[in-house]
Amino acid sequence: MKNFLALAAIVPAALAQTPYGCYTEVPARALTGSSLVNYTSMTIPDCETYCTGLSFSIWGLEYSGECYCGNALAQGSFPAFSTDCTMPCAGDPTTTCGGPNRLSLFGTSEEPPTVTPYPHPEVTTMQYEGCWTEVSGVRALSGASAFSASVMTVDGCGSYCLNSGFTWFGLEYSAECYCGNELDGNSTAAVETECNMACTGDLNILCGGSDRLSVYQWV
User: Fold this and answer.
1) Local structure of residue 6 (DSSP, 8 states)
2) What is the distance between the alpha carbons of residues 174 and 196, in angstroms, rounded to a whole number?
3) Which of 110, 106, 41, 96 lies closest to 73, judged by CA?
4) Which residues form the WSC domain (predicted)?
5) Which residues pair with 104 in a beta bridge?
6) How far apart are CA 163 and CA 126, in angstroms?
7) Which of 9, 51, 192, 214 has the fewest CB atoms found within 10 Å of its own CB?
8) How far apart are CA 180 and CA 3, in angstroms?
9) What spatial distance separates the first Cα and last Cα of the chain, rounded to whole Å?
10) Nearest partner of 167 among 175, 176, 178, judged by Cα
11) Are the C-beta atoms of 68 and 42 separated by less than 8 Å?
């Protein structure tokens, strides 16, 4: 028993991190407390140790080797598609450290941090507006956009666009999500059967087609 206690005393306590998922980075930093950059050996525990050592409760990793700390997210940072965070950590390629303008986010609380979306009208429901054409060289919805080869859904696209401050959204080619506040005037209503491609994240729901958008509006 004496030897066991001695051994236990020198084993460091496990880091108490809660993964929150992949979050968007904003034009200004999502986490503004402090930062650490190491493109050769950054790991998730390294980032946690650095941030919690400075008494920050949230930390995020980006571009494989960047670590950011804070106690709250800046306005406009919100959950992104999990496939947006695909870059391996520089010091542990078996784990993920964010992506381009995306943070793999962690924290000390079991509850994810509060998200403050970009301003948008008060809405509650996604309303389907039909199948619409996409015109070559001109986006029907020209606001924010996202892509996910494996987890795109109508709900996911809708949340992404609303958090980005847009009330219209459309899905195309199974995996593409486009946002805006109105449809471009060159886009016209198409035959419903032309929106015939299943969403990559839900094969029971259609996510547009070839140059065709399944269009929704938040109301």
Assistant:
1) H
2) 9
3) 106
4) 16-109, 125-219
5) 22, 61
6) 14
7) 9
8) 65
9) 66
10) 178
11) no
Say which amino acid occupies 142.
Answer: S
Q: Which two tokens stand for residue 125?
A: 């429901």
Quick check: 41 and 75 in contact, CB under 8 A?
Answer: no
Residues 106-141, buried b or exposed e (16+ Cβ, 10 A)? bbbeeebbeeeeeeeeeeeebeebebbbbeeeebbb
And the tokens for 36? 């650490």
State the residue for tokens 């506040």. 181
Q: What is the pTM of this model?
A: 0.85
In tens digits, the chain (219 residues) has pLDDT values of: 333 333 333 333 445 689 999 999 988 899 999 999 999 999 999 999 999 999 999 999 999 999 999 999 999 999 999 999 999 999 999 999 999 999 999 999 999 999 998 888 899 999 999 999 998 888 999 999 999 999 999 999 999 999 999 999 999 999 999 999 999 999 999 999 999 999 999 999 999 999 999 999 999
The DSSP line for 19-63 is EEEEEE--SS-S--SEEEE-TTT--HHHHHHHHHHTT-SEEEEET
* Residue 148 near residue 102 (C-beta atoms within 8 A): no
Measured distance CA(123)–CA(136) in Å, rounded? 31
